């Protein structure tokens, strides 16, 4: 709920929404829980220096920030709105939430034994590790000649977006295994001519970004050559 509000306001401000990162969420949750257990709102109570904590978990970072908070409003939307409003009304917290440098975030929430809600949000400026996306395009047949097209994208980050780079393409006949027909290519279509009749022909593609991150293979698309 907090991240949804934060990202909506970031986009309204002309920024890119933070990309949630499980490793940061786990760290932020641990830090929120420590504060809840101690009933103490401080970065020291949360676990001390964030950079040391990131390093101990081998989390890649070029810069980092943390905002923390506590509210007595009922757990759920009311607590989320209370925390976010407090952060947004604070110049120092707002500056971190609306950073033009950080690109990844983890928001951690914990409840204390008195029902109060404690939160930590850890932001980092990190190199792009978000997987690109590959998409099947048209698969067409002209007689026994086939043509497969594809595309893709690389999700935009506030900073350090690696950018879509190349594709790998595989094909197979229905009675055979997958075979790579294009590797590390910038092309977006390929023809396969003189295919044997009476078979299905299947194609799939994966994308690679500028840092070498690979997408999942697309769900196979197929066409019949009668």
Care to describe what's here?
This protein is α+β, with helices and mostly antiparallel strands. The protein is 26% helix and 37% strand. The chain contains six helices and eleven strands. The strands form three sheets. Strands 1-3-4-2 form a four-stranded mixed β-sheet. β5 (133-142) and β6 (145-153) form a beta hairpin. The longest helix has 17 residues, at 22-38. The chain is elongated and about 70 Å long.
Summarize this, please?
By secondary structure, the chain is an alpha+beta fold. The protein has six helices and eleven strands.
What is the makeup of the main sheet? 4 strands, mixed
Distance between the termini: 53 Å
Proportion in helices: 25-40%
* SSE topology string: HEHHHEHHEEEEEEEEE
Give the number of DSSP strands.
11
What is the count of DSSP helices, taking H or I runs of 4+ residues? 6
Mean pLDDT: 98
Low-confidence regions: none
Strand numbers in spatial order across the main sheet: 1-3-4-2
Q: What is the gyration radius calculated from CA atoms?
A: 24 Å
Structural class: alpha+beta
- The coarse silhouette is elongated
Q: Approximately how much beta-strand content do the residues carry?
A: 35-45%
List keywords for this structure.
single chain, 4-stranded antiparallel beta sheet, 11 strands, alpha+beta, 226 residues, elongated, 26% helix, 4-stranded mixed beta sheet
């Amino acid at each position: 709920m907090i991240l949804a509000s934060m990202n909506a306001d970031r986009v309204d401000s002309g920024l890119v929404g933070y990309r949630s990162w499980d490793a940061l969420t786990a760290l932020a949750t641990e830090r929120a829980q420590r504060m809840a257990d101690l009933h103490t709102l401080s970065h020291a109570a949360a676990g001390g220096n964030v950079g040391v904590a990131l390093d101990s978990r081998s989390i890649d970072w070029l810069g980092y920030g943390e905002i923390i908070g506590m509210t007595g409003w009922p757990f759920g939307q009311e607590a989320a709105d209370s925390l976010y409003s407090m952060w947004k009304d604070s110049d120092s917290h707002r500056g971190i939430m609306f950073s033009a440098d950080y690109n990844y975030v983890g928001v951690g929430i914990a409840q204390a034994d008195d029902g109060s809600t404690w939160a930590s949000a850890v932001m980092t400026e990190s190199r792009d590790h978000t997987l690109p996306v590959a998409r099947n395009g048209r698969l067409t047949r002209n007689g026994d000649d086939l043509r497969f097209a594809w595309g893709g994208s690389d999700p935009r980050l506030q900073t350090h977006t690696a950018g879509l780079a190349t594709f790998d393409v595989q094909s197979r006949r229905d009675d055979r295994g997958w075979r790579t027909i294009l590797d590390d290519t910038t092309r977006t279509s390929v023809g396969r001519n003189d295919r044997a009749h009476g078979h299905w022909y299947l194609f799939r593609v994966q994308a690679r970004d500028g840092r070498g991150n690979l997408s999942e293979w697309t769900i196979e698309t197929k066409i019949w050559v009668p």
